[in-house]
Design goal:
- This protein is of the alpha+beta class.
- Helix content is 29%, strand content 45%.
């Protein structure tokens, strides 16, 4: 009887060890695969985007209403940004937005601002001149039919 119990324990331990080794190896392969995918995709993350050099965006909050029966969206984006050190002072900034979308309003701390929207850019005249390091809190409300763009695939 004791011999049977010992054999069962040895078998169970060996089976458990083999399963654990298989699990560890499988996880190692997954980690290697994820790392390789990340390294391949990294080239798409390191884009030197030529946005407005006068501002540093620190936060985006996007609220979308999507009409699934037609290609229509209503959007509100809250943007926290700071006048960059490269700009001594400015009263004008720009942000990107597809021309197929229409800007309804641009607000700074609840106050409407003057803006134009053309060539994929919202050109915004600020309510005053801001110095380097000053923070801005913008809200942009827009709507329209977003144009589909080809996305790079990894």
């Amino acid at each position: 009887m004791r011999r049977s119990i010992v054999l069962i324990l040895v078998f169970a331990f060996g089976f458990s060890f083999a399963q654990q080794k298989s699990f560890v190896e499988e996880n190692r392969q997954i980690r290697i695969s994820e790392k390789e995918s990340f390294e391949k995709g990294k080239q798409y993350f390191d884009i030197d985007y030529p946005g407005d050099p006068q501002i540093d965006i620190t936060y985006y909050k996007l609220n979308l209403f999507i009409d699934y029966t037609s290609p229509f969206i209503l959007g509100e984006v809250n943007i926290d940004c700071e006048i960059s050190d490269s700009a001594a002072s400015t009263n004008f900034i720009f942000l990107d937005l597809q021309n197929s979308l229409t800007v309804d309003s641009v607000l700074i701390s609840g106050t409407p601002l003057l803006f134009t929207h053309s060539d994929g850019k919202i050109n915004i005249t600020l309510d005053r001149t801001y110095s380097a390091g000053e923070k801005l809190f913008l809200i942009i409300i827009y709507d329209g039919n977003p144009r589909l763009q080809r996305l790079r695939q990894f």
